[in-house]
Structures are given as C-alpha cells and as structure tokens.
Amino acid sequence: QVLIDGQDMAEMNDKRRVKLRREKIGFTFQSNNLIPFLTAQENVEFMLRLNGKADKAGRVRSAEILSRLGLNDRLHSLPAQLSGGQQQRVAIARALIHNPSVVLADEPTASLDTERAFQVVETFANLIHENNRAGIIVTHDLRMCQFVDRVLQMQDGKLVRIYETKEEIMELARGTMKH
C-alpha cells in the first residue's frame, strides 16, 4: 500500500494518479531529461507551468533553488551549455520547485564530482527538511548517508537491513560498519 498525503494510490484511477504524481511527487533520474530548448530556469519552472502555478513568486523560487545548488550564474543557459553535473543540479531543482510531498532521487550525484556531490546532497536534504517533506534517495555512494535520517539497504532486490540511529548511519557512511 502506497499512501501520499493520506491518499491510497492503488484506489485511484489513472487520471487521478497522474495528477497526484504531477502535484505531490518530485522526480530526479540518472538521466536528467531536461528540455533542450528551455533555459535552466525555464526547465525548473516547467513543473510550475504543468500545475498551473507559473507566476512571479515561482520565478523567484526557481532562481533561489538554482542559486542554492550553485547555479546562480547559469539561470539563462540552455542544457547544451551546461556540464553534466550542472544539468543534474537543474533536474534536482526541477524536482523540488513545486514543493512536493515526496521527492524521489535516483543516483542524484552520479554526474557530480565528490565535493559538489556532498554540497548537492546536503542542500537537497536541507530543502527537504526545511519544507517538512520526505525524500527518498537511491544511491550506491554510502558517503551520502550522513545527510539522511534512515537507510534501507537493499541487496538483490530485497530489503536486508534498516539503519535508523544516527550512530549506525554515520558508521555506515564512514565504512566502519559491517553490512
């Protein structure tokens, strides 16, 4: 059973499920799926347009999120003018712009160097916490665990362990815990 804001997704028709995903869930994938003819800021604002909420406040918020992700000087750049890491950060901003209840991030740091990966995941975690939202990050990079509240370890498609205390999570991030 999957509940989003108290709504059971299994009980919804396709139209309602699409609306819920568009309004309540933010996605970022390994492949960033940016629209090539839109600028970084326009790509982020696209989610607001889909939800009928594109306005001046949305434009300000998109610039703010992009700035927090280190892209304040790239707002008007097209995806082809951005590095892979910059494109990934635009995709993360797009996932966060409409303040979804849940953000799903599949390897959000795959295109980033180590220093930028830490900055991005920390900013991502801060934005999630500041807005009292849920974030689910799928990653192979255990160093990113230090920014999360809980770790669910999967192996061969099965849940093998849950790390819930900060001490366990930090040991896992440092690589000192036996998995």
Task: Give a brief description.
The chain is an alpha/beta fold and 179 residues long. The chain has helices at 14-24, 40-50, 56-68, 84-96, 114-130, 166-174, and strands at 3-4, 7-8, 25-28, 102-106, 134-138, 151-155, 158-163. The chain has six helices and seven strands, in the order ββαβαααβαβββα.
Can you offer a commentary on this structure?
The protein has 179 residues and is α/β, with parallel strands linked by helices. The chain has a domain at 3-116: P-loop containing nucleotide triphosphate hydrolases (Rossmann fold). It has 6 helices and 7 strands. It has helices at 14-24, 40-50, 56-68, 84-96, 114-130, 166-174; strands at residues 3-4, 7-8, 25-28, 102-106, 134-138, 151-155, 158-163. Strands 3-4-5 form a 3-stranded parallel β-sheet. α5 (114-130) links the parallel β4 (102-106) and β5. The longest helix has 17 residues, at 114-130. 28% of the residues are buried. The mean pLDDT is 88.
Question: What are the SSEs and their pairings?
Answer:
Blueprint (H helix, E strand, L loop, with lengths): L2 E2 L2 E2 L5 H11 E4 L11 H11 L5 H13 L15 H13 L5 E5 L7 H17 L3 E5 L12 E5 L2 E6 L2 H9 L5
Parallel strand pairs: 3-4, 4-5
Antiparallel strand pairs: 1-2, 6-7
Helix pairs in contact: 2-3, 2-4, 4-5
Q: What percent of residues are in strands?
A: 15-25%
Q: What's the helix-strand series?
A: EEHEHHHEHEEEH
Give the overall average pLDDT: 88
If you compute it from the alpha carbons, what radius of gyration comes out, rounded to the nearest whole angstrom? 17 Å
Q: Any idea of the CATH class of the domain at 3-116?
A: Alpha Beta
Helical residue percent band? 40-55%
- Could you name the CATH homologous superfamily of the domain at 3-116? P-loop containing nucleotide triphosphate hydrolases
Strand order of the largest sheet: 3-4-5
Q: Please name the CATH topology of the domain at 3-116.
A: Rossmann fold
Our measurement of the CA-to-CA distance between the termini, rounded to an integer number of angstroms, reads 28 Å
Largest sheet: 3 strands, parallel
Shape: globular
In DSSP terms (H or I, runs of 4 or more residues), the helix count works out at 6
Secondary-structure arrangement, i.e. CATH architecture of the domain at 3-116: 3-Layer(aba) Sandwich
Number of strands: 7
Determine the structural class based on helices, strands and strand pairing: alpha/beta
